[in-house]
Amino acid sequence: MNGLVGGILIGGSSRRMGTPKHLLKRDGQTLLDRTIDLLAPRVEEIVVLGSGALPPGCTCRQLSDWGLARGPVAGIRAGLAWAEPRGLLLVACDLPHLDAAALDWLLAARTGSGVVPVTPDGRVQPLLAIYESALVPDLDQSLALRPALPARALAALPGVIRESVPDPLGPAWTNANTPEDWRSAGGRAAEDR
């Protein structure tokens, strides 16, 4: 296979959405299950990163956050520990437009210590990215200084490249943080789940 595991980042308080985002349903399938289906043919194994209830029938291993780290980087670091020596294809749970073409483009861009995409609007996108085990020493050093390291800081670590996302693939990196985001992405209201 390709020496990659898939890590699906869940958790967080979902304050703006009002319900766990990974359990939102679209076309009868949770976002988590949909993401698992997209990742499965592209990685050796899949792990769920962060706390939160999993949908019935989900058989993925679930990892707690790493040590004293906080925020999304705590989940990323836990995923890297589990994946080592392989790389981690990280996917946030709240990407309703994620598709095979975006994942395949990201896999083709794999190089160095990681690939952090930059979408056509100029935003660094660290939560649908690839991180390699070689990144761990620099990440640990950064976390020792700043346990709440913002995820976007991963793009500045040595060996991580920024890769520009082609315009047609940009929507795959658009997340749904609020009920309005979710409805505009074609999702059903939480009360209709």
How is this fold's topology laid out?
Layout: E1 4-9, E2 25-26, E3 29-30, H1 31-39, E4 46-49, E5 61-63, H2 72-83, E6 87-92, H3 100-108, E7 114-118, E8 128-131, H4 136-145, E9 160-164, H5 179-184
Parallel strand pairs: 1-4, 1-6, 4-5, 7-9
Antiparallel strand pairs: 2-3, 6-8, 7-8
Brief rundown of the structure:
The protein has five helices and nine strands. The chain is of the alpha/beta class.
Would you mind describing this structure in some detail?
This protein is α/β, with parallel strands linked by helices. It has one domain (4-188): Spore Coat Polysaccharide Biosynthesis Protein SpsA, Chain A (Alpha-Beta Complex), CATH 3.90.550. Helix content is 24%, strand content 19%. The chain is built from five helices and nine strands. The protein has helices at 31-39, 72-83, 100-108, 136-145, 179-184, and strands at 4-9, 25-26, 29-30, 46-49, 61-63, 87-92, 114-118, 128-131, 160-164. The strands form two sheets. The protein has a seven-stranded mixed sheet with strand order 5-4-1-6-8-7-9, with helices on both faces. It has a two-stranded antiparallel sheet with strand order 2-3. Strand 2 and strand 3 form a beta hairpin. The chain starts with a strand and ends in a 9-residue tail after the last helix. The model is unreliable at 189-193 (pLDDT under 50).
